[in-house]
Automatic annotation (TrEMBL):
It comes from the Eukaryota. Residues 1-21 are annotated as: Disordered. It comes from Kwoniella heveanensis BCC8398. One of its GO terms (molecular function) is heme binding. This is Catalase core domain-containing protein. Residues 1-10 have a biased composition (Polar residues).
Length: 376
């Protein structure tokens, strides 16, 4: 009898973790839960981001972004939608199989602190795709409501440790208070009940950035569905570095230097993928600190992103990316509207950060519409 019970339990477990089919995917309508006082909390987070920007200015005499502060490389390439993309995945950016778009990207260290590359920390990648057609979340800088760019932000951590807005405020207040005292910050974080989650990003292996899988972390509309995105490195040269960590005695600029050396003779290739939510319990939208299981939400290949060999850290590119332009997941199509509290926070906080940077550096920060704007 026990053997029968064990078999039944094993079958039930397998059934509950099987991949969900498109007909089971969650509708993107009414998946968000906006709580009272959210606007005020978002404004508070924006103010705390300004505080961290001021700390960096005091140390470096330059107004930087609020997060993803330290640039590592800047690249230009293209995104090609799969020729045989299934019809149920043909939405928004991915509406036309086989179509190719110009794209640019920025690799960066994710934290608000300017950390040495030999220190463990999350790494990020900002992606801007050009000449994307479709109804926009807001008009493009030239006034068009049907043509512009689509921005994505990625991180090599699959989750955001900031569970909700209240948690974000608490953590940002600690980061601001102990901005110049990392040891004290770690001690304060260690007192929290969610300390394992807060320490998770710093526990990531210090892998080669060019070989890192990147994640959108938060959820987005995907036409009628709810999805998260990912970039999977696929070239042979990238594959050869997967699973490897940088040397223990690496320089403080190791990632910048390695990316520059790598791209001097080799290119990169990524598969842009999406996984789809089928229920809010297993695949929450409001809480981006929960990783969606690949057992129930497997990845679906959408497009190939490729960057050829190139100079990745010229002064012209560095100044343009750091001082002249902005990225935001809200600069894009209505069919890829950002979802969840972390994304609603980004909408306002990124605008505040961009304005702070523009005023402080006396340099207009704009949203480019042509890939040719990016210097060589």
């Amino acid at each position: 009898m026990q053997a029968i019970n064990d078999t039944v339990q094993a079958v039930q477990e397998k059934l509950t973790t099987k991949p969900r089919e498109p007909e089971d995917w969650l509708s993107s309508e009414a998946v968000e839960e906006i709580k009272p006082g959210e606007d005020e909390k978002i404004l508070r987070v924006g103010e705390l981001v300004h505080d961290m920007q001021r700390h960096n200015f005091d140390a470096h005499q330059h107004k930087s972004r609020g997060t993803h502060v330290k640039s590592l490389a800047f690249v230009k390439g293209e995104l090609k939608i799969k020729q045989d993309l299934p019809s149920h995945l043909q939405h928004g950016l991915f509406s036309t199989p086989g179509k190719t778009y110009a794209a640019i990207g920025r690799y960066a260290n994710e934290p608000s602190f300017i950390l040495p590359d030999n220190q463990k920390a999350p790494r990020g990648f900002g992606l801007k795709i050009f000449d994307v057609e479709g109804k926009r979340l807001s008009p493009a800088p030239d006034g068009s409501e049907t043509r512009g760019t689509q921005d994505f932000l990625f991180n090599n951590a699959p989750i955001v440790e900031l569970t909700d807005l209240d948690t974000t405020i608490e953590i940002f207040e600690l980061r601001t208070k102990y901005f110049d005292s990392p040891t004290k910050l770690q001690l304060e974080l260690a007192k929290r009940s969610d300390r394992l989650k807060q320490f998770a990003p710093a526990m990531l292996p210090n892998e080669y950035v060019v070989a890192a899988t990147m994640f959108s972390q938060s959820a987005f509309k995907f036409g009628p569905y709810v999805a998260k995105f990912s970039l999977l490195p696929t070239s042979d040269d990238q594959e050869s570095l997967k699973g490897s960590t940088i040397p223990n005695d690496a320089d403080t600029t190791f990632h910048r230097d390695h990316l520059r050396s790598y791209y001097s003779s080799k290119g990169t290739t990524y598969v842009l993928r999406a996984q789809f939510a089928s229920d809010l319990k297993s695949h929450p939208v409001e809480d981006a600190s929960v990783e969606w299981s690949q057992l129930t939400a497997p990845w679906h290949d959408l497009a190939t992103l490729s960057f050829p060999a190139q100079e990745t850290f010229s002064d012209a590119r560095r100044v343009w990316w750091e001082d002249r332009i902005g990225l935001s997941p809200w600069d894009g199509l209505a069919e890829h509207r950002p979802l969840g509290s972390i994304n609603r926070l980004r909408h306002k906080a990124y605008e505040m950060s961009r304005a702070f940077r523009s005023k402080g550096n006396q340099m207009e920060v704009y949203l480019p519409l042509k890939p040719g704007d990016m210097p060589e």
